Structures are given as structure tokens and as C-alpha cells.
Amino acid sequence: MADFEPKVIAFVCNWCTYAGADLTGTSRMKYAHNVRVIRTPCTGRIDYMLILKAFASGADGVIVSGCHPGDCHYTSGNYHARRRWMVFRGLLDFLGIDVERIRFTWVSAAEGAKWAQVVNSTVDDIRRLGPYTAYQQMIGKGVERTLGDPAD
Amino acid sequence: MEALRQRARELLEAGSVQVIIGYANGSNGRRRPLFARRPEQLDQLILEDNPPLNLAVYLRKPEIKRLGKAGVVATPSILKSILQLAAENQYRDSEALFLALDPTGAVVELSTADAIAKYLGSNGQAVTESESCAEIASLDRDGRFAFWQQEFERCIRCYACRASCPMCYCEQCIADSNQPQWVPVAPHSLGNLEWHVSRAMHLAGRCVGCGACTEACPAGIPLRLMNQFLADLVAKEFSQKAGAGVKLDYPLSVFNVKDREDFIK
Questions:
Q1: Interface pTM, i.e. ipTM
Q2: How sure is the predictor about A151, in pLDDT bands with cuts at 50, 70 and 90?
């Protein structure tokens, strides 16, 4: 496990976290390179299916981040997102999916340092949890059921 | 029962409804839906307290709408679904007529959401299955994952759960979308998980708990548990219950600035 490098996908909103991550870079702050940032218009746009797709594509962890409550560029996208995450997180936990691997956070455009800290701590957490093998093993499973019996 | 059949016959004969939807005996001791368009077909009508299917589902189907105005022999589950549909602007007052029995056995005719809400207020019993939810929730995470994987493994993606659900009325379902393909169509583990997550998410705060999906599932997957779990969660977090009244907001399209956010770090 020593050479395990976590793959982390970050879904961030255009107006706060993406700008915040930009600030991290322009401030020359270093942070873990394991994160792949995907920019969305708003946290309200982050469909729960995107998070599942990230895991299906081999992610070991997911960061979901946007504007702090009250700061949404579209007034209320993050409030709606917060409700949806609450329900989605509850459902995933009920289905036995490791919700520790999904980090929900708010990072504003001024919080470049917080972005670095969010990414570093998430990557550390995922490194400790190891690769998400349970999910990745599931992905290949049952494909044979869809192919039919070769003897037929 | 006889009073109900009699009233249904009168309604058909008078032409106030064109079809009576109820239950009849099917093969192998099962119940089947009955669509009586002629009075003599009502001889097959039976009364079922705990029917396996929710007749409200038919009111949204174009082929049933084409038959004309429907009279539905209703149970509390059906009426609750209608209330939820009315809250979602999917049921217009007087679009159909619901025949129910009051405690004295007299026939009650309901056609507006307000009348249904009033009737349910005095006759509707709550259906809960929270105990089995608690049983699964008490397992550890790996145990829950193993449990659901074992259940989903049997899924053949026939979408009977979707077809049997009065709340699944989208003309185009996410599961049928192939550009982009959100949900893989093949019944392998990943596709099944993604389908069941989508289904449960779309029903969060909308499921009235009739249990028709679980009854319809040929693989015997306890789909209801997911719905019940989310209904409990929505009730706890947002104090909302599906089918509880005529005017309801969809809990995921509204928000409260004070919503819990202890999971956001």
C-alpha cells in the first residue's frame, strides 16, 4: 500500500471554489497533486449521479465544494445542493457505501489556503482508507450475467 | 361491497364514468386490476384491503386516459398517492372519481384533493416499515454493502418497480436516456446499483409507502426499505411527509437556511 496514490475527483462551483483553487495556485501554495478538479456552474448543478460516476471511473475519493451559504452566485443553489447531499449521503450510507470518501465542504474565492488544506486532508484520509476496492470490484461483477451462456 | 358494486354500476350506466378500475381475482390466487367498461363486468369486482398494486398508477397512463373518466375503487394507499400527485400538479380535481368505504360501510365518493385529504384524515392508517430499516441500519457498513449487493444482484432491470409506481410518471426516464447514458442498461452490479440509487433518490420525499414496487419486483428485492429509509430521513430532517396534504412542497426543491450541515467540513 506504500505506493498507493489516491485518485480524488473534485466537483467545484465556478464562482467560489474554482476561483479559490485558482488563488491557491497564484499564491504559489503547494498541495497534493492527486486531485482532478471538475468545474461546474454551481453546486446546485452537481447531480448525485456525477458522484457515482466518479467512483465508477475509479476515483477513491470525491470532494464536493462550493460557495458558503449565503454567498451563492445564483442566490440559493448551494442551499438546494445541501439538502440533496443530506439525502444522498444518507442513502449511500444505508446502502453501505463508504461516505467517508466523499468530502463536502465550502471554499470561497478568498480561501486559497483552505482549498489546499481541504485537498491535503482529503488525500491523507483516502490514503489511510486505501483504494476503494469494494466499489471497484463491484464494477466488473455481474457482467457475465449480461452475456448469456456461451454454450447456447 | 354490494353497495359499492351497485354504485359503480349506476355510475357506469349513467355515463358519469366510462371505466371502473378495481381489483378482480387473477390466476394462481393473485389479484389483478379490473377495467370494467360495461356494467356486467363489475360482477368480477372484489374488495381488497391490502392490494398488491396501486391503482393510482393507471390514471397517469395515456391508454387509460383515452378510455374516458375513470372511477377507482380506492384504498388509503391509492388516495394518498392521489394527494401526492395533486401536490405535484399531476392530478386535477374531478379528473377521476374515487369510491371508498367509510367505517359504517357506506360508499363515499371523492373527486377533489380536499375531499380526499379530509377522508384520509379520518380513515387513513399509516403504513410503516421502519423496523426492518433499523435492522439493516444496525449492520456495519460492510454488512450493509453485502446485503444490498446480494439483493441487487438478482435485479434483471425489468423496471417493474418503475411501472408499478404512481410517482414514476416522467415521460422520459433517466434510465432510458442514452446520450448521456446515466444508468448502464445491463443488469450488472454497477448498473443495478446506479439504477436503484436513482430510483430511490427520485422518490425521496415523494414515496407514500404503498409498497407496490416491492410487490411488483419479480426478484423479490425489498425496494420499499430504501424508500422508507428516505421517507424517514426526509420526515426527520425536513419535517415533510409525502401524501400528507393537498399543498406540499417537494422537499428537495425548497430549502431552509438553517438546514443541518454538520457533515459539511
A1: 0.92
A2: low
Residues in chain A whose Cβ is within 8 Å of chain B: 48-49, 52, 56, 69-70, 76, 79-80, 82-98, 103-106, 134, 138-139, 141-143, 145-146
Residues of A in contact with B154 (CB under 8 A): none
Count of structural domains within chain A = 1
Q: Is residue A110 part of a domain?
A: yes
Place of cell 407514500: B208
Q: What grid cell was written down for B247?
A: 399543498
Q: Could you report the per-residue pLDDT of B26-72, keeping only the tens digit for each?
A: 998 888 999 999 999 999 999 877 788 899 999 989 999 999 999 99
What Cα–Cα distance (Å) separates residue A88 from each residue in A28, A29, A74, B125, B226? 35, 33, 22, 29, 12
What average pLDDT is seen over chain B?
A: 91
Domain that holds residue A46: 8-146
| Residue B199: closest CA among B183, B186, B211, B210 | B183
User: Contact B252/A94, CB-based, under 8 Å?
Assistant: no
pLDDT at A5: 95
> Is A1 domain-assigned?
no
We report the CATH number of the domain holding residue A61 as 3.40.50
| B129 band by pLDDT with thresholds 50, 70 and 90 | low
Q: Which of A17, A57, A86 to probe by mutation at the B interface, max B CB count within 10 Å? A: A86
B187, B201, B230 member nearest A48 (Cβ): B201
Q: Is residue A2 part of a domain?
A: no
Answer whether residue A63 is part of any domain: yes
